[in-house]
Amino acid sequence: MTDAAPLLRTEALTKSFSGFVAVQGVNLDVKAGTIHALIGPNGAGKTTFFNLLTRFLPATSGRIFYKGRDITDTQPHEIARLGIVRSFQISAVFPHLTVLENVRIALQRFRGDNFSFWKSDTILNEMNDKARKILGDVGLESQANAVAADLPYGRKRALELATTLALEPELLLLDEPTSGMAHEDIGRTVDLIRRVANNRTVLMVEHNLSVVADLSHRITVMQHGEILADGSYEEVSKNPAVIEAYMGTGHA
User: Fold this and answer.
1) Which one, out of 155, 166, 168, 247, has a CA that is 20 to 30 A from the CA of 84?
2) How far is CA 42 from CA 8, 46, 53, 179, 223, in A?
3) How far apart are CA 98 and CA 92, in angstroms?
4) Looking at domain 1-86+170-252, which CATH architecture does it have?
5) Mind listing the pLDDT tens digit for each residue in 4-48?
């Protein structure tokens, strides 16, 4: 795996806003089949970097490559079709529909059916079968008929992930997947991320360093829009510059 070409690569990726440089010359390789964490103090540029990858923001300079293809100027909807999906932002969850209906709508969006609810019972039942399998993957199979608004917070996040998985991502971008969760939900979410990463690549922004240590194969640390360190958790956790960055800001 270490000798293979990266699934995702950025070269000197930079984003500035009216003279303020939010992301500065970032060179990042994400290997296929890994869980790669992007960490750093608040204001480090992590979310801006995600927005550049999904083309929600255009890069000021630099290039983005996916499976060797230059996607720097690709439109956001085409980025998703290529297999790069940002969870919890792109996913559409409708609070007054059931859990199963939410996933089925996501499946229809992927098929390009324009929410065609008049389709035959056979086609809808096929979608139900696929939706139930996805719900099983995220541990929501027993709540398929529950109304989404009635789910506890942690289970709503699982449903959001399920609607994202319906888009069949090859590279899944997770932005703060455990944010605001109670301890029990954090453990469940960690198990969920590990499970869904079995056959895909995950790049995640995460502040909870115990989650990062538990899940990540590789970690990239950002500060002031630049890469401060990159390596295994053991390597970056002992890096004096990383320790200073966290100690100096009070964020973990």
Assistant:
1) 155
2) 24, 8, 19, 13, 9
3) 13
4) 3-Layer(aba) Sandwich (3.40)
5) 789 999 999 999 999 899 999 999 999 999 999 999 988 899 999
Residue 14 in tokens: 């930079």
Mean local confidence (pLDDT), 242-246: 85
Residues 38, 220 contacting (CB under 8 angstroms):
yes
Task: Give CATH 3.40.50.300 domain extents, the chain.
Answer: 1-86+170-252
pTM of the model: 0.87
